[in-house]
Specification:
The chain has 283 residues and is of the alpha/beta class. It is 23% helix and 24% strand. It contains seven helices and 13 strands. It has a seven-stranded mixed sheet with strand order 1-2-3-13-8-4-6. A six-stranded mixed sheet has the order 5-7-10-9-11-12. The structure holds zinc ion. The site of zinc ion has 6 residues, from loops.
Length: 283
């Protein structure tokens, strides 16, 4: 993955998923830099590429957030009408963004597709759509089946991961578009690392209940400490179990909490932060 500095667009910084990003498909992860939000002391925590368009009412100006989307999308040659967003709720629900869905939800004044159903993954094969998922510590996963020209974007927090959103998204690609998992390239973006992702014992127990004792290898065991979870490695393991080839998976080693100048982090900020977005689209 490459951190790109684009001085032509407000000193925009974003990270390209180099195993997917090409002349045919764009696959990028935003950082917190390059936008117009957070210019006052009261809104500093939203500085500056806040992409939380329907998540923090009152926290940021809608106009700022839309401008931020325009900046980062235009850097990739896409406009607002390309955008597809979800009402994310830590579910394992998946939306197939086909013609019907796009038609149904493309009713807002700016003409983008704002899906109001609770879901945390998007799949499509329509060219010119830019699928997006928002995160600030959770794991963003971008998928590209080059053979069938099908893409997907997943917001995988621990709840979605527990209920199998990664595996279900791949199965959905197979069902809807005949995808063979062996043809999928995957990029797991910046997210909270093992260094920082402390979880409750009950979280670890629910994973063991769902996936068996073997899952314990993704949790630390230290005396008098709660477990820490390596959710990026766990996500990678679920991809491989579902048939994705290991050599087709790229994982960002950046921890969102350890890099507060580059990323919004829910944990670092105590919940007071903007959101980043990951984008994937067929040109
Ligand atoms: Zn960390």
């Amino acid at each position: 993955m490459t951190l790109v500095n684009d001085a032509n667009f407000h000193d925009l910084q974003y990270i390209t998923a180099d195993n997917i990003h090409s002349s045919d498909v764009i696959a990028i992860f935003s950082t917190r830099n390059g936008g117009v939000s957070g210019q006052t002391p009261e809104t500093k925590h939203l500085y500056s590429m806040n992409l939380a368009h329907n998540f923090s009412p009152g926290e940021d100006d809608y106009e700022n957030i839309i401008e931020n989307y325009k900046i980062i999308m235009s850097s990739q040659g896409f406009d607002m009408k390309s955008l597809v967003t979800l009402q994310q709720k830590h579910t394992s629900n998946i939306i197939v963004a086909d013609d019907n869905i796009v038609k149904k939800y493309r009713s807002n004044p700016l003409g983008f597709c704002q899906i109001s159903e609770a879901a945390d993954a998007l799949v499509t094969n329509i060219k010119g759509l830019l699928l997006s998922v928002r995160t600030a510590d959770c794991v963003p996963v971008l998928l590209y089946d080059s053979k069938n020209q099908t893409i997907a974007a997943i917001h995988a927090g621990w709840r979605g991961t527990l209920t199998g959103i990664i595996q279900k998204t791949i199965k959905c690609m197979t069902k809807e578009y005949n995808t063979n998992p062996k043809d999928i390239k995957v990029a797991i973006g910046p997210a909270i690392g093992l260094c920082c992702f402390e979880v409750g014992f009950e979280v670890q127990e629910s994973f063991v209940k769902e996936y068996g004792e073997d899952i314990n290898k993704y949790f630390t065991t230290q005396p008098e400490s709660k477990p820490f979870c390596d959710i990026k490695s766990m996500s990678k393991a679920f991809l491989i179990e579902t048939g994705v080839l290991e050599e087709n998976i790229e994982v960002s080693d950046l921890c969102t909490k350890c890099n507060p100048d580059l990323f919004f982090s829910y944990r670092f900020s105590g919940g007071k932060c903007g959101l980043m977005s990951s984008f994937i689209g067929l040109k």
